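Support request from a user on the community tier.

User writes: "When I paste my structure tokens into the form, the page sometimes reloads and wipes my input. The last time it worked, I copied everything first. Here is what I submitted, just in case something in the input itself triggers the reload:"
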């Protein structure tokens, strides 16, 4: 994906991973020891390594000395460090009044990802939703917000679809598994429901979309699993990141053990699901059964 904001985020993540690797190579220094050497809080060092905070020029110079980085490698890291400090607003910056910090970080990861693996139980993936469907689920999910704020979030979802899938030079590779129940639930009323199913039939034919449905007959395979998403990046130096959904909100997961488990789980769900063609057939039957 070619977006200035995604490039910035990936630069920060890649730079942070490089610093973490240098720290561990430097006599296995702890975060606390590095923080003491820099004269700053431990949390600042942690956030820099996680790509959540920009590293100042002064701290960069200190870190290069602490880790005894050779001159040639310093030059390479200096270029990457400079890339982390660019100030170009992302497309979603105009929606800052309704986007949380967590959602903004997710948008940056999504914009930079090459592949998404997503499982949904009761609703459809955001990048596949029609405007009316998105309006209905957002209205329920954010009841404390006013109509204008809900409308803005729906606009953000629509822009995500355009930037990541519909109008992208290199579309996001979308691998989706949903339950049959997500097809049957009438979200936004009968008309919106049918419109959404028509849209699913159309967008599931997109070259970069692989949509599979777990049928009711395989309910035990999916009924007890919560929704989750894994984002994968073309740059092998950038680790996968996952997001899980619960009543408490979205949970970000980047621990390698969690990611291995989620990848295994997604493979199992894919095995339980119908093929893309069979899934399109069941979408069409669901769409036509009330006619």
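"...and here is what came back when it finally went through:"
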């Amino acid at each position: 994906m070619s977006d200035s904001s995604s490039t910035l985020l990936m630069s920060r993540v890649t730079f942070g991973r490089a610093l973490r690797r240098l720290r561990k190579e430097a006599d296995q220094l702890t975060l606390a020891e590095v923080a003491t050497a820099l004269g700053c809080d431990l949390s600042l060092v942690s956030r820099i390594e996680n790509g959540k905070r920009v590293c100042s020029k002064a701290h960069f110079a200190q870190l290069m000395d602490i880790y005894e980085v050779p001159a040639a490698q310093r030059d390479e890291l200096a270029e990457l460090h400079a890339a982390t400090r660019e100030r170009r607003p992302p497309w979603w910056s105009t929606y800052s009044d309704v986007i949380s910090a967590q959602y903004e970080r997710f948008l940056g990861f999504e914009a930079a990802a090459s592949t998404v693996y997503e499982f949904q139980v009761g609703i459809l993936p955001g990048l596949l939703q029609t405007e009316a469907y998105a309006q209905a689920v957002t209205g329920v999910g954010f009841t404390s917000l006013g109509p204008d704020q809900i409308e803005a979030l729906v606009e953000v979802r629509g822009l995500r679809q355009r930037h990541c899938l519909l109008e992208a030079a290199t579309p996001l590779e979308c691998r989706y598994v949903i339950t049959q129940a997500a097809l049957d639930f009438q979200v936004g009323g009968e008309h919106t429901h049918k419109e959404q199913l028509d849209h699913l039939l159309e967008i599931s034919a997109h070259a970069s979309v692989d949509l599979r449905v777990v049928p009711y007959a395989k309910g035990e395979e999916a009924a007890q699993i919560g929704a989750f998403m894994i984002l994968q990046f073309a740059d092998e130096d950038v680790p996968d990141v996952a997001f899980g959904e619960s009543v408490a909100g979205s949970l970000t997961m980047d621990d390698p053990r969690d990611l291995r488990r989620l990848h295994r789980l997604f493979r199992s769900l894919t095995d339980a699901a119908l093929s893309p063609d069979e899934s399109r057939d069941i979408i069409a039957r669901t769409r036509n059964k009330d006619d």
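Agent notes: The reload is a front-end session timeout and is unrelated to the input. The radius of gyration is 22 Å. The longest strand covers residues 173-179. Escalated to web team.
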